[in-house]
Amino acid sequence: MQIKIFAAQWGNNELPAPVFIERVKAAGFDGIEMSLPLDAAQRDDWTRQIADAGLDLIVAQWETVFHPSFAPHKAALAELLHNACAAKPLHVNSHTGKDYFTPEQNRELLELAADIARQHGVPIVHEIHRSRFSGHPMLLLPYLRHMPELRLTADLSHWCCACESLLEDQPETLAQTLPHVRHIHARVGHPQGPQVSDFRAPEARAALAAHLSWWDEVIRLRRAAGAAVMTLTPEFGPAPYTQTLPYTQQQVSDPWQQNVAMLQLLRQRYA
């Protein structure tokens, strides 16, 4: 199974496409995970430059967070997913639904995404993320029972925060969830937040070990299933995900350096 590791545009949005793409290639990533413009010409320009650089693409859809009520959220989801699939990425990573939508509403959104994926022949995976339909394990598990075909992006740092633990008390939850994972956001969270200050620091050792054990199991499951490719995106984000000092707001660590260091760890671990 081929392991492909992607650079998140999040935190680098101010960089022009050629500058960011060169930064990604120089660091040794296999591709880019990013949200694409809705303007077709701008979208196609980004995808062309990424392809010309020999990089793969995962499209992220997160802008539905700006639509807190159901009808506008559904309309935005359809527009954003059609636009994302039009770029023909490896897959689309979607922030879908809300934790306060009814189960029927969230299932309607998930079924909409499945239909769009079929139309375009592009897989759509749904991110485990606070405030989405998957924001807590007990929210997600009923959807997995009703929709066994559901495919997920594992960003389990969010569940660490939501459950105020490293999930050591929920082995059955993980056993039910990890077989549905098709993409990993390789960020390390802790019981009080979705991002440690520096995953290499000794105080982050337990949190890193927990996350690595989950990622190891996903990789094992996908290899056993005969998958051709598994994708991971180191996703340490800018402030306020990266903690800052009071008053000066100086970041205590550099998220890009964290992501490159995580890339190197993943290459060594899963080579």
From TrEMBL:
Superkingdom of this protein's organism: Bacteria
InterPro entries: Xyl_isomerase-like_sf, Xyl_isomerase-like_TIM-brl
Keyword Isomerase in record: yes
Organism listed in the record: Duganella lactea
Residues in Xylose isomerase-like TIM barrel domain copies: 21-186
Gene Ontology MF term list: isomerase activity
Protein name: Sugar phosphate isomerase/epimerase
UniProt keywords, alphabetically: Isomerase
